[in-house]
Amino acid sequence: MKNGKWEARIRRAGELAAAHPFASEGLRFYESLARFQKSLYSEVEAACGPSKMSRSPGTLRSEFDPFLLLPRFPAFLAVIEKIAPAPLSRAAHELGAKSGSQWREILARFWEEGLGSPVNLEPEETLLSWIFLQPYAEYLADHAAWTAPDDAPCVCPLCGSKPQVGALRPEGDGGKRSLICSLCGTEWAYRRIVCPACGEEDVRKLAVYSW
Ligand SMILES: [Zn+2]
Question: How far is the CA of 156 from the centre of ligand 1 (A)?
Answer without folding.
Answer: 5
